[in-house]
Amino acid sequence: MNQTFGHFEDSSREYVITRPDTPLPWLNYLGQDDFFGLCTNCAGGYTFWRDAKLRRLTRYRYNNIPMDLGGRYLYLRDGDTLWNPMWKPCRTSLDRYECRHGLGYTRITSEKNGLAVEVLFFIPPGETAEVWQVTVRNQSGGAKSVQLFSFVEFCLFEALNDMTNYQRTYSIGEVEVEGSAIYHKTEFRERRNHYAMFACTRKVDGFDTSRDAFVGVHNGLHDPKAVLAGACTNSLAHGWNPVGAHQLNLNLEAGAEESFAFVLAYVDQGTDEKFEAPGILNKNRGRALVKKYAAPGAVTCALEKLRTFWDGLLGALSVQTPEPNLNRMVNTWNQYQCMTTFNLSRSASLFETGIGRGMGFRDSNQDLLGFVHMIPSRARQRILDIAGTQLCDGACYHQYQPLTKKGNAEIGGDFYDDHLWLILSTCAYIKETGDQSILEAVVGYADTPGSKETLLHHLETSIAYTLQKRGPHGLPLIGHADWNDCLNLNCFSTEPNESFQTAGDVDGSSAESVMIAGLFLYAARELSALYQAMNRPADCARLDAAYAEMLVTIEEQAWDGQWYRRAYDAAGNPIGSAECEEGQIFIESQAWCVLGGAGVENGRAAKAFESVHQHLFTPDGIILQQPPYATYHKELGEVSSYPPGYKENAGIFCHNNTWIHLGWCLLGDGDRALEYYLSICPPAKPVETYRCEPYVYAQMIAGRDAATPGEAKNSWLTGTAAWTLVAATQGILGICPGHDGLVIDPCIPRDWPGFTATRKFRGATYEITISNPRKHSKGIQSLVVDGKPISGNRIPIAPEGSTVRVTAEIQ
Ligand code: BGC
Question: If 0-12 CB within 10 Å is exposed, 13-18 middle and 19+ buried, where does residue 45 land?
Fold first, then answer.
């Protein structure tokens, strides 16, 4: 493994970064439910409550120079040396630097001229506050008098306004100061009951709240006026740019150390007792927080709670296989990323600004697949929230805002795959939990105020919608796009100022998607299996008939000779066919047709997958399509707007790679499945080329046609997280929750002797040992559960609280 910038420490579940100048800022997330912080390896980033657009506490400027400028700053003034323990923004060279990104926390330690500083950042579970625990140690051998300054830039305005509407925002930011606590309020009148607080648990020697006073109008963050002068000015901001800055004078004898914490909080005061005097904030909740974290041991205790929280979550699924990168991803980082994508969808990362996308309908349904085993109750709520943004005809809002849970009208709908993903997420939830009652939960349709339909009604509406929206070949219509957001067969855009996803008219168009047809097969089969579990044979039969009919349509209309076609454009021309000049073969239709069961009986599935191997597979992953589009095709849309090798135009889109991994498992080739799995596995990539974080998946790796092949982009918030966990644990390791038990169906590389796994399922713990004495990939020859042989590969549901010992042999 390449260790130029850092390494994994599996025992502590940390990634240890050993130099601050990583190829790109390497991000971690603080927070686990409502309050979040983005925190890079230089503590860059920002903090928000629930919604990065509507409740942003601190400011961040994307696309800054240098990158990742803005965040949680500490300055040390030690004689003539001005430095930052997190390296930025001064970038004074450090004598030592280490950043440990852990689960929900980041710990940065550094040293300069005999002064060692350790800063731990985390959000205690259940708290809407970020704690920065600081320890300063004098290791110089002599006494030291230094000054430490803290700094954050507030922005409790709506974040887009903060970047665009200065005529207003420069006049509404206010502050109050009490002791070491700086309070930031904005429009704290009738419309808002919340404020931000940045406080220190130690007595401070000065403060600033005006950015002009602390930084100076013509200075930069690397040379703030007050720090250069060695004194804050106790400024009170009136509008402009309110900040929180503290000054601490530290006198440390040789060997002495001091510890204290900063608390950056979001406080919702509610409407009662909002003020303690006319216009003056009621600060009781803020004061209580500072007091709480000033108490000895409080921070350690909160950190312990965080660790226990994560140990509990990850304890539900852990594996030991011969492949260390699979182990560390599945056991720690992949599950961690799944929690993040579940929480944030595609809203806030270093590539998603928090002001653009809300929660995606299809994205959130898929994110749930990798999260449902961790906190099923949250998954249940999410399914109902998502379903509430579906319209009564079956169409969906493509995105919704997490704070309001209302569909995002600007992005609209008519992505004709969206509704089908709801079936996948609901079935995954029911298989995981057995909780069929969710189907009876009442969820209205977004366009029908007061409607009281059940979730099951939504699922049926989704099936009916696809069956109804079909084109000349009998295949499902595509609308604005299917999963491939950039395959816009109805936009015909020649206007650079419009969005490919909303341009054009889908009404009356006949462009069709083979991928949606394959996804329909999968969804129909899932729903049929659910009806079977509910003992509703007539509904099973109805869905099985719809399935059979779509299967025939696919085999008759979508087979191209060596693979499945991808789509038909609005003029009826095939896309993803050998007869095309570019874009002859695509991943998505091979994956979904095969996962849906097409071609499995007649040999086409195996042929299609060999074609994938021949035309699309590379050591960096599977390319989305080949050959790339060299020019813009208005009948295809955004896919042809990217340079070859990037994004959907022949980039390696990691998300859809995982479906092929699952497909290889279905076809029984465990060698290919693992080879493909490792081709996009971040710890296995050469970091200088890859550049993104080695511990989380990125949305994209540049394909072989790109100028920079192997370079990753858009890390963290990607559907790759959930699907790769599904591919690894349910595909390769074959531990699959089913309606009436845990199904064991591994498909491993032939040279693996076996593996072990622990899986919590419906309250019982399954200790699983799989052995592979005959060096095959797939097929269970024997299954022994608590000493008793069982026929087939399904372990019956065990009583809650029990531990079940399972051994199985591959045939
Ligand atoms: C979007 C997904 C989409 C994918 C492929 C992602 O950026 O969030 O919804 O399926 O791109 O185009």
Answer: buried
Q: What is the pLDDT of residue 1?
A: 52
Q: Do 701 and 676 form a contact (C-beta atoms < 8 A)? A: no
- In percent, the amount of the chain with pLDDT more than 70 equals 100
- The tokens for 752 are 């693996």
Pocket test for ligand 1, best of 483, 656, 723 (most atoms within 8 A of CB): 483
* Residue of the CA atom closest to atom 5 of ligand 1: 484
Q: Is 84 in contact with 94 (CB distance < 8 Å)?
A: no
CA of 657 to the centre of ligand 1 (A): 13
pLDDT at residue 2 greater than cutoff 80: no
Kindly state the greatest CA–CA separation across the chain.
84
Of 335, 358, 303, which is closest to residue 127 (Cα–Cα)?
A: 303
Ligand 1 neighbour 483 (Cβ under 6 A): yes
Q: Helices (DSSP H) in 134-266: which residue ranges?
A: 159-164, 166-172, 211-214, 225-229
Residues in the chain: 811
Measured by CA distance, the residue closest to atom 9 of ligand 1 is 363
Give the position, in ligand 1's atom list, of the atom nearest the Cα of 653.
Answer: 5
Specify the DSSP element, H or E, that contains 747.
Answer: none
User: Residue 495's pLDDT band (boundaries 50, 70, 90)?
Assistant: very high
Would the CB of 361 count as within 6 Å of ligand 1? no
Compute the distance between CA of residue 209 and CA of residue 348 in angstroms, rounded to an integer: 27
User: Is 449 exposed, middle or buried (CB count within 10 Å of its CB: 0-12, 13-18, 19+)?
Assistant: exposed
Any residues with CB less than 8 A from the CB of 233 and at least 6 apart, and which?
206, 208, 210, 213, 214, 226
Active site residues: 485
Rounded mean pLDDT of the chain?
96
Region of poorest pLDDT, from 18-22, 174-178, 386-390, 408-412: 408-412
Mean pLDDT within 697-706: 98
Whether 363 lines ligand 1, by a CB cut-off of 6 Å, is: yes
Q: Is 0.85 surpassed by the pTM of this model?
A: yes
Cα-to-centroid distance, 483 and ligand 1 (Å) = 6
Compute the average pLDDT of residues 187-207. 94
What band does 189 get if pLDDT is binned at 50, 70 and 90? confident
d(CA 709, CA 701): 7
